[in-house]
Amino acid sequence: MNITERVAKIYSEIPENVRLIAVTKEADIDKIRQTYQNTVIRDYAENKLQSVLNKKPLLKDLDQIRWHFIGHLQANKAKKVLEEFKWIHSVDNLALLQRIDRLALENKLPCSICLQVKALPDPNKFGWTIEKLMEELKEIEKCQQFISIRGLMTILPLGLTSEEKIAAFSTIRNLAKSITGTSGVNIEELSMGMSGDYREAVACGATMIRLGRAIYSD
Ligand SMILES: *Cc1c(COP(=O)(O)O)cnc(C)c1O
Q: What is the pLDDT of residues 183-211, one digit of tens each?
């Protein structure tokens, strides 16, 4: 299958309201062009600022692209990331969130934000634990001067069974409901699901799936 066929197959498996984001960290310029020209995908994600700085000038004519940042974000790169990306999925601590909101306000750079949460304990992953997120909710709520906190993002540990994936994604969906119900933060987006687990994520209410290998691996 080529990119067009793989994307068509993925769309046939997911509901219409789910936004398919192409993760292009392993894709060269030509593959991104093919995706843009031959599919309806307009949302593209990178996990490194530098990759978008390199790729953007070569993709200037693809003027509908929305870039999503999905990598670990260092505080000193926050302003530049705000300049280059419409969405940041990987805000993983309160100090960083506060900094992003302040920089967005000072520089008039609107951005949609997802809070990265660990569905399961995982020492190798960044993100709020559920307990910590609930504890800091009042402070998180204040960080909406110029940014929109719109979603939760999660990355599951490797090696889970399908049942375990469903349980973990459901935990995040329930967390979103409880945040929206008890605070001034309105979580309407769930950024969950990668190539290895997007079917389970969609079954649990994902609204954005982030796919790399499923689109770009032969
Ligand atoms: C690489 C990456 C993806 C895509 O992973 P695939 O397994 O290639 O679909 C999704 N989300 C994040 C945060 C990533 O770094």
A: 999 999 999 999 999 999 999 999 999 99
Whether the Cβ atoms of residue 24 and residue 212 lie closer than 8 Å to each other: yes
Q: What does 39-96 look like in DSSP terms, one character per residue? A: S---EEEES-HHHHHHHGGGGTT-TT-EEEE-S---GGGHHHHHHH-SEEEEE-SHHH
| pLDDT (0 to 100) of residue 47 | 98
CB atoms within 10 A of CB 9: 12
Residue 151, Cβ density class (10 Å: 0-12 exposed, 13-18 middle, ≥19 buried): buried
Instruction: Tell me how far the alpha carbon of residue 106 lies from the centroid of ligand 1, in angstroms.
Output: 31
Q: What is the mean pLDDT of residues 56-65?
A: 97
Q: Determine the distance separating the centroid of ligand 1 and the alpha carbon of 47, expressed in angstroms.
A: 9
pTM of the entire predicted model: 0.97
**Percentage of residues in the chain with pLDDT exceeding 90?**
97
**Can you identify the CATH homologous superfamily of domain 3-216?**
Alanine racemase (3.20.20.10)
CA of 210 to the centre of ligand 1 (A): 6
Phi and psi at 23, nearest 5°, equal -90, 115
For 95, other C-beta atoms within 10 Å of its C-beta total 9
103 lines ligand 1 (CB under 6 A): no
Q: Are 149 and 185 in contact (CB under 8 A)?
A: yes
User: How far apart, in whole angstroms, are the C-alpha atoms of residue 106 and residue 124?
Assistant: 33
